[in-house]
Fold these 2 entries.
Entry 1:
Amino acid sequence: MREAIARAEVGDEQAGRDPTVNLLCERVAEMLGKEAAIFLPSGTMCNMIAVPLHCRPGEALVAHRSAHILTLEAGGPAAIAGVMTHAIDGERGMFTVDDISPFVQPSPKRHTVRTTLIEVEQTSNRGGGSIWPLEQIADIAELARASDTAMHMDGARLFNATITLGIAAHSYGQYFDTLWIDLSKGLGCPVGAVFAGSREMIDRAWVWKHRLGGAMRQAGIIAAAGIYAIDHNIARLKDDHANARRLANGLDAIEGVSFRVGEPETNLVFVNVDVPGLDAPELAESLGERGIRVGIEDERGLRMVTHLDVSAEDIEEAIAAVAEIVAAV
Ligand SMILES: *Cc1c(COP(=O)(O)O)cnc(C)c1O
């Protein structure tokens, strides 16, 4: 990837003259089954641009209560787009047509809040890396069409879903007006995300890219990493999933450690720590001292992510470390 970065042909990205950025956008648009795509510095900026593309101030979006767009983007929908949000409950970070239909009205009254966007996070991060079934998305898309509501996918981990199911990304893409992929998660790039939609949507997204300061210059050096990742780092996501299962099963066998949101479907492992005299932050700290970094959810919970820098041997080491730390309490 570093070599691809060094070799990248570049130009002025703002002027549409960076050939590497243009190639990356063409490739992602094709993979997602969309007319066009735009390169952005982060996934957060993709979500932030989607909201004003689909909603006017005073309108609403629906998303799962745990979704990144509601919980981890510094209130962007309200601050940047003046948009209200309906936080939906549902199993494993997902919702059904029944869950959202009270908020998605085919003919809103003059005084009600009109929902103009349904947001889906694939995979659901806090749902434990859970995969939205295609049929569930198709049903939601039908409701969206019937009520003139747009569909947007936060596809930060879309390829983790499609690799698991053995389907193409455009199978999901067909149901969404806009969707994006993150280059800097499982794909292992230093920076970047690609947002796709119709030509008209992408033309409008360009206005927001400039407005938010996301228009760049010789961005080909980072786009080259994205092209490399698409060619080399998608198929191998299944290794991360095998490692996540191995990790989860190993940890679950340790007294006092258990799954938080069920068995991992992809590369995210959430565990509860129920060990007298050892809370989750303390366990995380002890692991950190051994060079094993894990995320702290709360006093009782940890979040672990398997990725291309974590090997099967590292997983065995992590399981053994947790067992040792727990036994030593
Ligand atoms: C990481 C992440 C984002 C934001 O992506 P950045 O590139 O870090 O801004 C959005 N949604 C989900 C589900 C994520 O995991």
Entry 2:
Amino acid sequence: MARELKVQDSDDHLEVSPPLHSAAGVPAVTRAMRMAMKQMGPTRSGRTLLRLNQPGGFDCPGCAWPDPGHTHAAEFCENGVKAVAEEATTRRVTPEFFAKHSIEELRGRTDYWLGQQGRLTTPMHKAPGDTHYRPVSWDAALDIVAGHLRGLSDPDEAVFYTSGRTSNEAAFCYQLFARAYGTNNMPDCSNMCHESSGTALTESIGIGKGTVTLTDVENAELLVVAGQNPGTNHPRMLSALEAAKKRGARIVAINPLPEAGLIKFRNPQTPRGVIGPGTPLADLYLQVRLGGDQALFQALGHLLLQRPDVLDKDFISQHTSGFEEYAASLATLDWDATARATGLQRSEIEALADEFARSRATTICWAMGLTQHRHAVATIQDVVDVLLLQGNIGKPGAGVCPVRGHSNVQGDRTMGVWEKPGEKFLQALDDEFAITAPREHGYDVVDAVRAFRDGHAKVFMAVGGNFVRATSDTDVTAASLEKAALTVHVSTKLNGSHAVTGDEALILPTIGRTEEDLQVSGAQRVSVEDSMSMVHASQGRLRPADPTLLSEVAIICELARKTLPDSTIDWPAMRGDYRVIRSHIAAVVPGFEHFETRLERPGGFLLPSPPRDERRFETQSGKATFTTHEMWAPDCPPGHLLLQTVRSHDQYNTTIYGMDDHYRGIKDGRRVVFVNPDDLAELGLHDEQIVDIVSVWRGAAGADEVEERRADRFRIVSYPTARSCAAAYFPETNVLVPLDSTAKRSNTPTSKTVVVRLEPST
Ligand SMILES: Nc1nc2c(c(=O)[nH]1)N[C@H]1C(S)=C(S)[C@@H](COP(=O)(O)OP(=O)(O)OC[C@H]3O[C@@H](n4cnc5c(=O)[nH]c(N)nc54)[C@H](O)[C@@H]3O)O[C@H]1N2
Ligand SMILES: Nc1nc2c(c(=O)[nH]1)N[C@H]1C(S)=C(S)[C@@H](COP(=O)(O)OP(=O)(O)OC[C@H]3O[C@@H](n4cnc5c(=O)[nH]c(N)nc54)[C@H](O)[C@@H]3O)O[C@H]1N2
Ligand SMILES: [Mo]
């Protein structure tokens, strides 16, 4: 078991070929199956994959795209298979592994190498001053955490992070524990992800979630996909785009990169996709400059306002506020500024306006390409404004569709994992459990790093995720976490964050989605919420990676019991039977009435959405709100480029499945930077050259002093991206993103605009 695994971990064999123009198809699933066999072997692969996204099976730990009624016999995609294989692997990380590798040594390893070692099996403890993790009993491990928490002078010195894999049940217990303990310090991966969408939508339409269902996507007349790469990150979305296309929908892609999955889809589940030519997707492909979407949507608003015949005047007068001001702000447009910001021709923007004018039902989907910019919140509100002009909210085929990342990131928020909980939620929690939850807002991700850096926080606990590698400014984040008195990670797999420890540290291994969760009352199911507010059950059947593993719920409830001995909350009852947790959720969270029985329905149930269901907007004005913003776009000084940090096809955030980025033509390497050939010529650089990427940052207020950060030795790949824009993979490039470079109001790191220059490596 403890045999060393050889993992190729360098770019020595990097090969580059031209990018592809279509996505998916049989080769994709074949590639993924090969990966599954390598991790699980044939019998386990078959047994596991057949239960993916099936009634009575488990929810795919891949992305948050909904399942079409849980009916297809093989409702999985290439990346779902990879995500399952990564978790259901037969490889194991045992105490002998930790005896052999010091923490210092693990710190030098990539997340790929760490992840390939397999599943964690044993609670591990690093004592103060020690160089290695050593095995520890569950009881002793949880006593250590409880001891630290009880010893803090203020509950706000503890920080409780969550990644969006956590089930509703675990998330609910976790936030209850944090609040019963006395803090709202609950940063989560959302802070780095769709926080900008939540902030923008709550103000504009009164709810921080999308307003469409899968049926709406399939019935839209116009589908806009902006700042999203579904071919890699939400492959099952391509089936919905294909279905829409077959019904005559038009599709517009807005993206600086020509992403294969937006150009053409070869569906592995239809004959046409297997042997035929596939379905062309985007009718219009706008290669916008990074951060140019706000200018684009304002120009679109301007053009639509010139055509009163295409506006929905009844909707505007009955259901919206702020129209006059919005219309006045876009009565004229500076086309030169628009061209500079978007990098697009006026005729391209006019073509986009024609698409909108023709459509009676428009849905706009987006992901990280819109949310991770300084002006992300304003940009998303400008997107909503355009939809409001034509009444495209709360009617079939129309609405906003922020496509979520982690499979239960939306559910975790619904369960109260949030550093800024609302009064209504806290009041319901207080009533149900006879506690007084703290009212003061807590730290989000970036503020949590600052709190450790400045000595205000002392204990860091994470349920899932890879905080140090996923957060911006890796070196600053790592140095801050190292100041903690205790760091605790509840994890399935080893990752870079485990090698960045506080004075004392713990790794608590846990079971995953694919595995059976046995408690005193029997096998438990859990629930999750997808990107379109469908809640459904998930139940794993595989034997856990190790018989001693505890579930996330068990770890949290036992820790709560030890930390809060006087608590009147019955933690053991919740741990023993998750139905008890669900009955509390039903009492606290609106929309979860009769939770247990509604969970029986195959495919689950839909949570209410006032804008979608009844065009009701719970905003300040009681109406959907047009917002007016001054146009802004990132500045790119001469000799520099705007860098976006993206995912390759072979990774799940910081989990690296392999070293290829198939659709973009990259094989066996990750340290590449994609640059437009014309920019290369202008900068005096060339394809295949090895360069250091240097980010330059003047501070949020444009300070005089320039801060520089460096990532060494990337190979230039000449690539047809938008002008003055570059792209490279995260987490490697997170060292370049300054901690203080965040979106206004949502505080999300600006991972999609980093001003950089490229220097030939020495
Ligand atoms: N296989 C796989 N699936 C995943 C993930 C994964 O890592 N692997 N991650 C999950 C998570 S947590 C998330 S949040 C989602 C992320 O899903 P995506 O948002 O698709 O992920 P990114 O790779 O960050 O891609 C951003 C896309 O936006 C484009 N873009 C960047 N900047 C701009 C801009 O300024 N304007 C416009 N219009 N486009 C821009 C990029 O070119 C790219 O196509 O995927 C989820 N699903
Ligand atoms: N530069 C840059 N940085 C980014 C982004 C970007 O686009 N660019 N994207 C951001 C986004 S959108 C997101 S969502 C964040 C992601 O941030 P995180 O969610 O923190 O990171 P992940 O890489 O998804 O976490 C992977 C780890 O989760 C653990 N894990 C997996 N499954 C389970 C489980 O079932 N239970 C438990 N307890 N642990 C589990 C494993 O140990 C694994 O190593 O990263 C952000 N960081
Ligand atoms: Mo995400």
